[in-house]
Design brief:
By secondary structure, this protein is mostly beta strands. It is 11% helix and 37% strand. The chain is built from two helices and seven strands; from the N terminus they run E-E-E-H-E-E-E-E-H. It has helices spanning 54-61, 119-125; strands at 2-5, 10-17, 20-29, 66-69, 88-94, 100-107, 110-118. The chain starts with a strand and ends in a 9-residue tail after the last helix. Mean pLDDT is 84; it is low at 73-77.
Length: 134
Amino acid sequence: MTVTAQEAGISCIAVGHPGDLKLASVGFNLDGSYEGMAEGGYRTSQGIGKGSTVNDVLGAYGKPVDILGERPRGPERRPRPGADPPTRQKYQYANPDDTVRTYFLVDQSRVTQVVINDLRPLQEHILKAPPKTN
């Protein structure tokens, strides 16, 4: 179930069986409107919010565990050598046991959204993770 408070710039995903839903994802729109979501006046505990840049995120949270770029559309799925980097990227951070991932959506160096995902309920109900190999 997806729940949005568009005027507040918040979206949530709850998963599970009826009567036993668990909050698995919360997203905050920080800068500009996005898919009908208004801009919210939110800041992380480290002060990341409207007006923050990728350098602010790196200074506050350190090196991310992963940086994902916007996927190309159409037949060309791999970036060409020397091609411009994607304008939208997700800087992902994980808690120590990698059960929660937080990502900052960065658009042309400006932080526009923050999303916190609890991976266990998402993997159980939405994303079927491949088996771990040793």
